Structure formats: C-alpha cells, structure tokens
Amino acid sequence: MEITFFVSLLLISLLNTTPFSYGVETICGNKYITQNTTISSPNGRFELGYFKPALSSNYYVGIWYKNISPITVAWVANRVTPIPSAAIHSSKLRILEVDLVLLDGAQNLVWSTNVTAAKLSSVLATLRDDGNLVLSGVNSKTPLWQSVEHPTDTFLPGSKFGYNKRTKTKQVLTSWKTPDDPSPGLYSLDNDGNAAFQLWNGTDEYWNSGPKFGSGILRTLKPSPAFNFTIVDNENESYFSYSIIESVISRGLLDVNGQYKCQTWLEPTKEWADIILVPPQQCDVYAYCGPFSICNDNSSLLCACLYGFSEKQRGLNQFFQGCVRKTRLRCEEMERFRMYTNMRLAGHPHNTTAGSEAECESICQKNCSCTAYAYSNSSGYCSIWVGQLFNLKQLGKDDSNGSTIYVRLAPSEFPNIKDINSHHLSGKLKAIMPSISVAAAALIACTIFYICFKRMMRTSLKTTEHAMEAMDQVIDEDTDEKGIGVQFFTLQSILEATNNFSNANKLGKGGFGPVYKGMLPEGQEIAVKRLSSQSGQGINEFKNEVILIAKLQHRNLVKLVGYCSQLGEKMLLYEYMPNRSLDTFIFDQTRRRLLDWSKRFDIILGIARGLLYLHQDSRLRIIHRDIKTSNVLLDEEMTPKISDFGLARMVIGNALEANTKKVVGTYGYMSPEYALGGLFSIKSDVFSFGVIILEIISGKKSRAFFQNQEITNLLGYAWKLWNEGNVMDLVDDSLHKCCKEHEVLRCINVGLLCIEEDPKCRPTMPNVFLMLMDESMILPRPNKPAFVTRTQTCDDSSSVPLHKPCSNQLTFSLEGR
To answer: Which residues form the catalytic set?
Structure first.
C-alpha cells in the first residue's frame, strides 16, 4: 500500500511542539461580524469573516489563513446556503440565545450551529490558534459546538478525524464543487467505523487506507519534536489526530479533483507544496474525466473524448465535464461498435454469460439502451453497459490487466464500412461460414423445430406483447383526441440527464421509489421519480398519475414535464423544486426559522388554493387521497405545489365521494372514515389539510409524542389547548415574536373544523378558503376532533352551515404509519 500522508509529516523540520492557546477575539453579546469586520486567532494565523470567491457573486462566512495570499479557506459555515451579493448588506454573524447564527440582509436565518437544550444565560464564540471556532459558555471551557467537528474540505492539525460508534456520527471531508464554489462537490473522505479511511465519488469507493488508518508503519515510529500522532480505536470511537510544530503550516485537503493532498506552506516560494497525493494518480479517482471519456495518466492530455463524442461545453474556470454524443442513437440495425484495447473497463456493468464474442455483441445490439459491451474469453462473461460510461482508463503497454471494450455508435460515425474494426467483421464471417453440410442440417432441424414449436410460442408471445403494451403505452383510451400534451422521454435520455442515476443526484426516497435531480440538454432542471419495482405503485397508479397531472394546470400543483415507460422502468419527470418539500422546513430545528408567519400563512393559502382547484375549479373533480407535508413541494419563491397524484381519484359529475377496498395513504393524515371503512371523499382531503395547518403552525408532526397520558397526537394536544384557552401555546417557538395572533387563531380554528370526525361536519374547501381569507367572518366553534371520545351526534344534513356547531360520538385509536 502506498505511504499515507501521515508519514510525510516526518519530513518537517525537528522543533519543539508549541501547545495551542485560546483566542482572545470573540463574538458575544452585542459584538458581531459584518461584511467589513473579522476576528483573528491570538497567534494571528487564522481569520474569521465574510469572503467572496473570485468568480462568484455569492458571499460565505469562513475561516482562512490570515497571511497567505491568495486566500486559502480552511472552513466554510454556509457552503450550502450562500448569501447573494444583493442580500449581503446588513448581514450579520452573531450570537442569538445560545446559537451562533448567520443572518442575511433581511435578517432571515441562513446558517446556525443549531445548539439545543443548553441551560446557559450567555455564550461566546472564540477562534482558537488551531483554526477551530468554538462556541461555549462564558465561564465554561466545555464546547457546545466546534467547527472541527463539522469540517468542509480541510483537515487541520490538532483536530480529530474519525467515527463515534455510540452516536453513529463521523467527520466527513467533502470537496468544493469548483475552486470558486464551496458547495459540496462529488468527492468525500470518511472513516468507515473500522479505523480505515475511504475516498468516494458519490457512492463509488476508489481508495481505502486499509485497517487502523494504514498505520502499520506509524505504530513503529517514535514520537519526535516535530510531529506526533494519536490513533484511537475502542468500543466508543475510532479516530486519527496529529500535531505539528507551530512554525510549520500544514493541512490535509480533499481537492475538487478528488485527490487527498498532504500539503505544507513554503514561505520562500509562497505556495502550497504537495507532500503526498492519495490516490497517487489522477486517473485512479473514480469517473474523474466524466462520462464517455478516457483518462490517460501517461498522456499530456489527461482526459479525452471517445470517438464519436465531443466535450461538454465548459464555463469559466470549470473542469473537464465529460463528453456527449455527436449523433444520438436511434436503435437502428446499422449501428456499429468501435473497439478500444488495453483499457480499464467502465464501472457498473451488467454481466451475463455468452458463448462467444459475436453472441455478446448481439445481446448488446438487441438492447436499445446498451451503449457498450466487453467479452471475456476466459470466463465466458458478457458485460454490457446501459447509459453513460464512466471510469474508462487507457493502460500502459506493459500493463497486462487491460481489457477490450466496444462502444456503440450511430451509423453516420462509420462513413465507410471498411472503417469498422476488422475484428468485428472477421468474427461475423466466422459465424456465418460453416460447412455446407452443417448448414443444410441445421436448416432442416430449425425448420422442423419451428413448425412444431410455432403454436406453443404463439400464446406466450401474445402474453408478452400485451405486457409490453401495458408498460410502453400507458396512455390509451383515457386520453382525449389531442393526446395528453406530455412528452415521452427515452430511458437513455433520462440516464444522461441524471448522470446514470448517480447518488450525488439523489434528492430523496418516497414510498414508491427514489427521486433524482436531472438536467435536460436544453438546461431545464427536472426531478425524476423512479418507481421501484417493489413499490406498491403499479401500472395503473403510474398511468393514473400521468393522465391526471397532464390535465391539471394550476400554480399550486406541481407540473409534469414528461414520463418514461421503457424496458421495465416507470418514471415521471417533474419540474424541479429547489426547496424540496414542506416537511424538510417545518420539522427541522434550523430551517424552520426560515419560515416566518407571513411565509407560513402564504403556504397555507397556497395549499388551500390547490385543493380548491382540484375539488371544484378543474374540469375533473379530483380527490388527492394523500395530502401531507412531504407531498407539498416548495419552489424557489417558497410557493407551495401539491405533488404525488399516484393515489388520486376522479369522481364523476357532481359526485363528492367514492369507496375502495384498498386503503392506501399515510396514517396521521388519513381521515377516520377512509382509514377504517375505505370511504373517501373531498372531505378526506379537507381532513388532511386540517392536519397540515396544525403542523405548519406548531412545527410538530401529527403523531408527535406529548407529555400527557391522555394525549397521544397533535390533534388531541391542539384540542386540549383550545378548550383551556391556551391555544397560542401550540404555536412554534420561532413564531412568537413575529406572528399576527388574530391570523394564527383563525387558522387554528379552521384547522380544528377540518379535522372533525364526521365528514359531514367538516367544511368544504370553498368554505375553508373563504374562512381563511375573510377576517370579518365569524367562525363556528370546533368540536372534538377525530381520535378523541365524543358525546354528541352530528346532524344528518348533507351540508353544514358555517355558523352551526356539530359533534359526534365515536372513539378511534388509529395508529399512524
């Protein structure tokens, strides 16, 4: 194994180690940092403040080396949430209660240390000599939070790098996206919990230090005045830490190219010198050159495109991003393959067996999504690749580990048939030139077999054709004459848009499968919902969602961009929502502070508008059946958009309800009549909306635990506070200073009306929207909600006037999912 970067530290001159000291410049009380102010460590080596990368229009708060130019940043606070130049005025980094927070010019929360349950009257933030920003009590040396436990791309002397086996947490270095963009890049370095360092490109590991941090050599070394290290691996934690003489500036850096570098600052030459590189060759970084390219460490041109491909367009200061086809594949018979020899094969092949190379080629040729193949004569394995090719490397002439790969190209890339590799031609000639006697015998045998087998296969073929029609033609008699107006995308185009469904593009996972971020060739960002074959959503649900969303157009409904149903895959392409779903805000201790009352009220109204459209204003009456916070997406302006129509149902004419034998949805949002009896109606969606209102106001989940033996959910807790006259106690703590009490009380009242047990007692969405908007309207008093014992019976009338109270006498104890 190559020598690790730790051994390289022995090259540093031998001097006495100087202990680190505490910083004297702090952030506390009314002392804060603005765009034009900084604080420094006592030894003058590190500085904390705002910085703006050279080619960026965004500002970040970070720690950098004070006397090194150009600026060398060691840590970034808000790398995920930068402050645009337009919002930098009046921005502050300050102490708020027991948290260190970053506010933009409008005083919106951008970043926070998110310290909780700290019983301290005052705290301060100190920048120490080792570059560690520490948040602690004024009279306490015990850190509440420290930056070295949340590193970005740099490992500093004196800090731990490891894994806490009890809390299952670890320090992870993540590269910058580009030299001018601190947001998380492709590459990461972590400890796998077994005292081994691992380098990753997304989910693909490309280097491992070996056990004990590869420390077999380190354990034989004696401590020196220049360098000392600590390795701990016990039942509680495993970590590596090192110290170095104060006069030498050293760091470990995971750079944007995916290499981990042990570096030292050379004052005479004013540059960072690489002592050790891991891995030592750039081409050993997984997918370093991007898709459809070849990496060659022995060439002056490290990355080059495959024949028939051209380099992706690059912006300023961007790296080689890979290659794209000059001519798209169309699954034509005349498409051919180009041979590349002595190669390290691409990652993630699909392996099968084949009797010959010609058979392997035929397997790939018949699969429209197959882009390349390779055949091993020794094992008989046929490897094929679907979608983009990553990690191809040209090996040296003396390297005997190389393989041959054949890459699929359009017919136009072969203007002369003689240009096709003679290897393919000769292989095919050998396959079609048997002796005449053998050919005749084979022909006779095949003819007899065909006649005998034809009838038996006909039934099977029809069954297969029907299955493929159901999969590839999901839009049929339910569409209107003009079609649904939604584009069909090929599987190949989606693979290219999502970087072959890379983990780096994964946005999350729902009940029906993962969702990936993608980029279409014209630059449009999309979210791809890839339905899992193990999910409960089959062809009917998929077809249902395509048809319904295609016919619905409203600013509070997510827009369907397209769909794909090919080769067993079912995918839906939506407009990309940069702020993800509502639940990621209101249930997160830090991000919930970004939603003041005005934004929350607008979100409540937006959801109400969307449901009003579904229930009344659209040409189809739609019952969603799965309204919940995770199905409400937020665009860049925080406008809510209802999504996920896989369970939605149309009701005919003026019908308001229907029945199903299969109850599907999410407990906690599901109305009692639907959960227990399978009866769903527009009032089922009203119930779910009421739950969402209470969640938005309280910041608590509907199934949250409350310290009361008689209360097991949010609905019961809200009802208890309402009866006691303390309903404002329900409001999220972050809203108390900014909310309009009369609006909050009106929303809680409406929410409690929506969750009444008997659907007849609940208002319709037109009434709900009117009650939310008209402050002059006198609202009826709500009755006990579902899941709580009731003592009265609701009137049997089909509709309930807004002024008429109503109650029921049922007891439910429905458990959530």
So the answer is: 626
pLDDT at residue 533, rounded to an integer: 58
Q: What is the pLDDT of residues 577-625, one digit of tens each?
A: 988 899 999 998 888 888 999 999 999 999 999 999 888 877 667 888 8
Domains detected in the chain: 1-20+158-282 (no CATH), 21-151 (2.90.10.30), 293-421 (3.50.4.10), 487-575 (3.30.200.20), 583-773 (1.10.510.10)
3-state secondary structure of 489: coil
Residue 59 is inside which H or E element, if any?
Answer: strand 58-65
Statement: residue 441 has pLDDT above 90: no
Global pTM? 0.53
Of 635, 599, 601, the closest CA to residue 106 belongs to 599
- Residue 788, classified by CB atoms within 10 Å of its CB into exposed (0-12), middle (13-18) or buried (19+), is buried
Highest mean pLDDT among 41-45, 450-454, 558-562: 41-45
- DSSP result, 148-198: GGS-SSEE-TT--EEEETTTTEE--EEEEEETTEEEEEEEEEEE-SSS-EE
Integer Cα distance of 481 and 355 in angstroms:
49
User: Which tokens hold the place of 340?
Assistant: 């590349």
Which residue pairs, CB below 8 angstroms and at least 24 apart, start in 221-228?
Answer: 221/10, 224/10, 224/14, 225/14, 225/15, 225/16, 225/17, 226/9, 226/10, 226/12, 226/13, 226/14, 226/15, 226/17, 227/9, 227/10, 227/12, 228/17
Range with lowest mean pLDDT among 566-570, 648-652, 692-696:
648-652
What is the number of other CB atoms lying within 10 angstroms of the CB of residue 552?
21
Cα 146 from Cα 326, distance rounded (Å): 50
In this structure, what token pair is assigned to residue 176?
A: 């910058």
CB distance 670 to 566 below 8 Å:
no
d(CA 267, CA 805): 80
| Angle, helix 741-754 to helix 682-698, in steps of 10 degrees | 140
